[in-house]
Each structure stands twice: as structure tokens, then as C-alpha cells.
Amino acid sequence: MPTENIRRTEVSLLNAPVSDLYVLPEMWSTGFGSPQSLTESGFDYGNDMSLQWMKRMSIRLDAAIAGSLSVRERDGIYRNRFYFVTPDDVWYYDKRHLFSYGNEHLAYTAGKERIVVEWRGVRFLLQICYDLRFPCFSRNWIIRSDEPLPSYGYDCALYVASWPTSRISVWHALLRARALENQCYVVGVNRIGEDPQCTYCGGTCAIDAYGRTVASCPEGTIASCSFEMDLEGLARFHRKFPVLEDV
User: Which residues in 124-160 are b (16+ Cβ under 10 Å) and which e?
Assistant: First the structure.
């Protein structure tokens, strides 16, 4: 039930290390499934229980809260929507690559836009689960400018997921690949638990632009982890080894 998941998540956030950003899994308040069974009843855009909780916690923690929800828009279509909520604003990304193997495309409508959000000097690319398998969609790019050195489109890609235990080795391999090929940080936050279709063991981690794991949670356990980005070091790496200038 959303109410119980919200309660547990709130306890976890309040006991987690103080951060500028807290990231939750895909459909964190309900688990992954058909929208008719998951979308909170009486949903009115901007007023559902889980999103309102994200807004309140963002203000309370003076931080951004990010994670996806199953939502129904006013025209009746359903979206797998990744919200990035700050004390003053709400951004969102609608999942582009729907998981047809699990019939997600029959229930939800795909988004079209890539979304990058800047928060406290860090640019975050918002992605959801199956998006991880499509490297062209997440390709970092260089912003050409009059500055002596160009800048990259984002510093960190966020992947929130309901990625099953049976394919967890693929999850780790692809997260590392996205970090290496885009010369960025990658944060992957995956659920744990089970539903009628799958079991989920977590595998939440953060990877730097060199492919090194800089933070991780133990698999199969409700846990949190934290790390601090080294943006100056990331910029030095880009200057030293400007791979994406050759794209």
C-alpha cells in the first residue's frame, strides 16, 4: 500500500546521511505493475499522495527527492513518471523506453523528451529502468560555447529501477558502461522485495566516470548509501581525456 511504503521511506530518509539529493526506486510507493492497480485512486495531477509527500520531505530536508510514480493524467493516459522535486520546483521525465517484454507498453504511454535537471550546481539526466539498455538515448553531449573548453550536457545520470534479481549482473554491467562511455557519474537505485512476477535484490550503487564504484548498498537489504561528487575532478578528467569531442 502507498501509505505503508511512504511511512517506511520516510523513516529511511530521516535516518540516512544528510544529502542534497535523495533518490528512490522506480514506482517506489507501489511497486511495478499495471496502472489500474497501482495509480492512487482519485488522482488529480499534482495532488496525489506520494507526490505531495515528496514535496513535503523536500522542504523538511532542504534537499531534492527523486523517484518514479505511476500517474494518470487528466486525459486518462498513464505515465511512468520520474519526479525530481526540490523545495521550490517539480521537474519530471516520462519513461521513454517502455518494457514491452513485460507489456508495459500496453498500459503506459511513452514519453518523448530527454530531461536534464540542474540542482545545486550539478546537472542530472533522469532515466528509468529499461532506458539503461539504450545507450544512444543517454549519450552525453558537448555544449559548444565561446569558452576555451566545452562543457558536457550532464554530470550524473540517475537510473531508478525495478530490475529483477535474475538479470542483476546485467544491471551492474550496464551502469558501469553508461558511466564509462559518457564520462559521468551514474547512480542506479533499484528496489528490493518481490511481486507475482519477479524478485528484486537491490544492487543500488554509484559509479564514477572511471567506472569505479564509489558507494553501494548490500543486496537484499533495505539500506541507503551516500557519496560526494567531485565535480572539479570530473572536469579535469574531461580536459585530460576529451573522448566525447570525437563523437
Answer: bbbbbbbbbeeeeebebeeeeeeeeeeebbbbbbbbb
